[in-house]
Design brief:
279 residues; alpha+beta; 4-stranded mixed sheet; single chain; 13% strand; globular; two-stranded antiparallel ribbon
């Protein structure tokens, strides 16, 4: 039994290693590469890169000190999965485009991904996702940050943004922020399909319903809190997000069965949202 357990452990590590390598390739390929533009001068650009170098050193040292290197790898894997399968497998709907933010905006602004969803013939609705993949920790600290943003009348922003390669870089402001997560069990299921290029499995996996429910629940709670704080513009943003997400869910239900399976991170998000005002 001990030999079997050891073998399974090594097999899991090998699968994670392969998934992590694939995730790094995807992120390196698709992440926005910051450039100087009209809104950012050379000195500010250099300061941003210096800040990034310092923060990355701190993050690496913290992972080593706390023994969380493996959890950090799972986080990167889920980030890449959310980016690639989010669009390729249409987790965010048929008209969604996922845009991987630059490492600067990932670290500085806490926005891992921008999801661009077409909601009319003439415009795009953008909403930012700060992806939570800390399986054992509560999303409370992330929700506390969102709460402070709403109270102060601010929404998330991405400093270095371009939706299509070759287009002029600019800042993207007023993005309603969300936390999206999945636990290690769900990530392991997804990784197995991902490494086998099981497109059908990824397209039908209930993770997409979990993600959409996480987004919808947060939209409604944050809208209500924004109204309470007399932040009408922010409340309107979250109301619009809720409307778009509800439409996506209805469209999905016509084609893909929802198994109603939800994991521990989803349950943690729901629990924290139930007393968001007290966070």
């Amino acid at each position: 039994m001990k030999f079997e357990h050891s073998f399974l452990l090594e097999e899991t590590k090998e699968v994670l290693s392969r998934a992590y390598s694939k995730a790094e390739e995807i992120i390196d390929r698709d992440a926005i590469k910051p450039e100087i533009y009209d809104g950012v001068g050379e000195e500010e650009f250099d300061r941003d890169f210096h800040y990034l170098e310092e923060r990355e050193k701190e993050i690496e040292e913290n992972h080593k000190a706390t023994g969380t290197e493996e959890s950090a790898r799972y986080a990167v894997v889920l980030e890449a999965l959310m980016h690639e399968a989010g669009q390729k497998s249409q987790w965010f709907g048929e008209k969604a485009k996922t845009i991987k933010t630059s490492r600067i905006d990932d670290i500085r602004a806490g926005v891992d991904e921008v999801v661009s969803i077409e909601n009319s013939k003439d415009s795009l609705s953008h909403f930012g996702l700060a992806i939570d993949v800390t399986y054992k920790e509560s999303p409370r600290s992330k929700f506390a940050s969102i709460k402070r943003e709403i109270q102060s009348g601010r929404l998330a922003s991405v400093k270095y943004f371009t939706e299509n390669k070759g287009e002029k870089m600019h800042a993207l402001n007023d993005l309603p922020r969300f936390v999206v997560g999945a636990d290690i069990g769900t990530v392991t299921e997804l990784v197995d399909m991902w490494l086998r290029d099981d497109e059908k499995g990824l397209r039908e996996h209930p993770i997409q319903y979990q993600i959409l429910e996480e987004l919808l629940r947060q939209s409604l709670v944050f809208q209500k809190f924004a109204i309470k704080m007399n932040q009408k513009a922010i409340a309107d943003k979250y109301q619009k997000a809720a409307q778009i997400i509800q439409e996506i869910v209805v469209q999905k239900q016509r084609k893909i069965r929802d198994t109603k399976n939800r994991d521990s991170v989803y349950k943690s998000i729901v629990e924290e949202l139930s007393h968001f005002d007290e966070i």
